[in-house]
Amino acid sequence: MLSKFQIAVDKARMLFLGARKTQGSLSPFTQCSFSSSANMVEHQSSSSKVQALYELCKSTFSSSGLPPPSSAVVQKICSLLDSISPADVGMKEETSDDDRGHGIFGLQRLSRVAKWSQPITYTDVYECDSFTICIFCFPTSSVIPLHDHPGMTVFSKVLYGSLHVKAYDWVEPAVLSKNKTSTERLAKFAVDKVLTAPCGTSVLYPNAGGNLHCFTALTPCAVLDILTPTYNEQAGRKCTYYHDYPDSTLCK
């Protein structure tokens, strides 16, 4: 028999999201303890595809995010991203034989432990006030927790590997639930799927497509992202992390 929670999720796919406070003024990526990897991408300008991507973003996006990208622009950027391979950004695909989840016994168990403990790495390919082009590299089972992209459009291209994506959009008009320690807001499921390279580019928008999302790496994987405009707390684009809770009114 299905639990009340499972029934509620299957019928309504709605949850209350409670904000998690971020610390200080660090970027949303370093708050997740990602490590810099300056050597991950070399000679970006030597790739004609990456150069074309940069030029298209430079001529299209603004620091205010207005006007939002048109459907024609979105399609053009997605088409270009779909053509980019790991080699185009100076990378090679990681193998998936790290055996995570299958125990650590064996002749190479110490090296395996070291491999499993590797952090998510993050590299800026290019960043300005209008957009960021960056790459995330995930070890198996690593997680980027649930977070938002206020007023932003984000393009995500899985370069290699498999990544589980769970994403929400806010229910409008806003439905709030207050308690002694926090204010929660009702959200609905938008995406719950596995992306395995090669696959098409995913796009989220300010109010649709799963603007709040989290990632779990099922294998070693890498994701090429474009965020526009960039995070900017003074402009109201602060990254907030969330916990998700089932809506109790739907679980009765």
From TrEMBL:
Pfam family, one: PCO_ADO
Family annotation (InterPro entries): PCO/ADO, RmlC-like_jellyroll, RmlC_Cupin_sf
EC number(s) given by UniProt: 1.13.11.20
MF term (GO), any: metal ion binding
Recorded catalytic activity of this chain's protein: L-cysteine + O2 = 3-sulfino-L-alanine + H(+)
Domain of life assignment: Eukaryota
Alphabetical GO biological process terms: detection of hypoxia
Keyword terms: Iron, Metal-binding, Oxidoreductase
Cofactor: Fe(2+)
Keyword rRNA-binding: no
SUPFAM superfamilies in alphabetical order: RmlC-like cupins
Gene3D superfamilies assigned: Jelly Rolls (2.60.120.10)
Entry's family note: Belongs to the cysteine dioxygenase family.
Protein name: cysteine dioxygenase
Organism: Linum tenue
